[in-house]
Amino acid sequence: MTTKILSFLMILALLMVGFAAPAYAAAPDTEVEIDGTIKAVYLAEDGTGWIKVDGMKVIIDQDTDIDGMLVAGAEVTIKGDLLKLLADDIEVRDDPEDLEVRNRDGNEVEVRGTIMMLHLVKGHKFIKVDGIKVILGDDTDIDGMLAEGAGVRVEGDILKVLARDIEVENDSVLPPPEDE
């Protein structure tokens, strides 16, 4: 009888953990920082949603800390977790690598890690590098053979970020001064 109760409690605990996981789970150590201009805003009544910043989709969830008003035209600084990028260059390495994300200029980023998944169907090619979706475009330069478990260095442009902190420049959304 005690074994059945313990088994039931373990299953219940596992189910609760599964339901408590966020919709967008990022891998550890994937933080990026972006400066840009808001182009579009979609926020639900509960404050969740997304904004477009210079071509990047920025996901806003209940844990996102927002300092200021999110309006089109506002200048923002965003700190968050990288979810998706469009690869320019991929260098395949012999051995798996620990995940490392480095900001470059603008929305460019470098990711080093291990290929966890390949999806090479024509028209929608991508790989997953330690949880980060890497889109392979027609112009992506690949040096080496892509394979699950292989280490890679990817350079590309950020497409999607899960925001943790958004700071709006106060003077970027002020109305123009009135003529006296």
Description of the molecule:
- The protein has 180 residues and is mainly beta.
- It has a domain at 83-158.
- It has one helix and ten strands.
- It has one helix at residues 2-20, and strands at 31-43, 49-53, 56-60, 65-67, 75-93, 100-103, 108-121, 124-129, 132-143, 151-168.
- Strands 1, 2, 3, 4, 5, 6, 7, 8, 9 and 10 form a ten-stranded mixed β-sheet that branches.
- A hairpin with a 2-residue loop joins β7 and β8 (124-129).
- Residues 15-24 have low confidence and may be disordered.
Q: What profile does the largest beta sheet have? A: 10 strands, mixed
Mean pLDDT: 84
Question: How many angstroms does the end-to-end distance come to?
Answer: 84 Å
The total count of helices amounts to 1
Low-confidence stretches: 15-24
Molecular shape: globular
Helical/strand content category: mainly beta
Number of strands: 10
Helix content: 10-25%
Strand content: over 45%
Query: Compute the gyration radius: what is it?
Result: 20 Å
Order of helices and strands: HEEEEEEEEEE
